[in-house]
From TrEMBL:
This is histidine kinase. It catalyses: ATP + protein L-histidine = ADP + protein N-phospho-L-histidine. The keyword Kinase applies. Residues 41-259 form the Histidine kinase domain. Its EC number is 2.7.13.3. The chain holds residues 85 to 350 of 350 of the full protein. One of its GO terms (molecular function) is phosphorelay sensor kinase activity. It comes from Fulvivirga sediminis. It comes from the Bacteria. The keyword Transport does not apply. Keywords: ATP-binding, Kinase, Membrane, Nucleotide-binding, Phosphoprotein, Transferase, Transmembrane, Transmembrane helix, Two-component regulatory system.
Length: 266
């Protein structure tokens, strides 16, 4: 057995090395499949608005341009498709920059309550059109968090935009906070249609939509929640969702409590 032992050992080493290599190959194959799927998805998403704009422009060139009413209507539709294309490319860039770590987080203390007030102002028109009430439910004078202001602005903008988009007319979008052991949880609650249980674990994937045609028609890129997820991961936090069909959804995320500036305290 003294002679056999070293051979056995070598054999074992070869086996474990082969297993390791196989694992690496499997991993690479998975990555490659993922990359292919991603390129196919992106191409498809890009084609949709390009195809639409192309159709309107060509119809105009083919003669529709002579009729003033048709002209304006088709140009408006072409412009809308191109705006959608612009949004999509912007979101894709943001997502890839966050994923490759090109965007460094800049942490600071800021008042998230004031940020939400500013975002509510931006959505006032859209909410008014659907008779949706925007409510900031807090008695606190300010809510200080420690985070990247610009990125959290994007997270809140995406979540509030969705809450308004997927709410029925006459609904309510309510933002509230809960403080707990050095963290602040922000809740964004809507009275929308809710998300089916079989879809809810997939809504943070790129381009995943519960209702493809409805979401597109509402002007979504399908990347909003993927961006939210990545930004929260960048903050070593996560975004959570609780939803009830026909009643609505609550999205939430935790951030560390910010330090009040000692120079400003009196
Ligand atoms: P989109 O641009 O399509 O809104 P998102 O990544 O922001 O893309 O959201 C993905 C999908 O999740 C949406 O298409 C929609 O089906 C669903 N969704 C997101 N937010 C809500 C919400 N507040 N209520 C109901 N469904 C939602």
């Amino acid at each position: 057995s003294n002679v056999m032992n070293p051979l056995k050992k070598i054999n074992e080493e070869i086996f474990s090395y082969a297993a390791l290599k196989q694992k690496e190959i499997d991993e690479l194959k998975k990555l490659e499949a993922f990359r292919k799927e991603f390129i196919a998805d992106v191409s498809h998403e890009l084609k949709t608005p390009i195809f639409a704009a192309q159709g309107f422009v060509h119809t105009l060139l083919d003669g529709a341009v002579k009729d003033k009413n048709v002209r304006t209507r088709f140009l408006k539709k072409a412009a809308k498709s191109l705006d959608g294309l612009d949004m999509l490319v912007q979101d894709l860039l943001t997502l890839s920059q966050i994923e490759t770590g090109e965007i460094k987080m800049h942490y600071e203390t800021f008042d998230i309550k004031r940020l939400i007030e500013e975002i509510f102002d931006q959505f006032e028109n859209k909410a008014d059109k659907k008779n949706i009430e925007l409510i900031l439910d807090t008695t606190q004078h300010e809510v200080l968090v420690y985070a990247d202001w610009q990125r959290i602005n994007q997270v809140l903008t995406n979540l509030i935009s969705n809450a308004v988009k997927y709410s029925n007319d006459g609904g309510k979008v309510t933002v509230s906070f809960q403080t707990n052991k050095g963290t602040i949880t922000t809740y964004i609650k809507d009275t929308g249609e809710g998300i089916p249980p079989e879809d809810v674990h997939r809504i943070f994937e790129r381009f995943y939509r519960v209702d493809k045609s409805r979401s597109r028609e509402k002007g979504g890129t399908g990347l909003g929640l993927a961006i939210v997820k990545h930004i929260m991961e960048g903050h070593r936090s996560k975004v959570e969702v609780k939803t009830t069909m026909g009643k609505g959804s609550v999205f939430s995320f935790k951030l560390p409590v910010g330090e009040a500036d000692p120079l400003l305290e009196d």
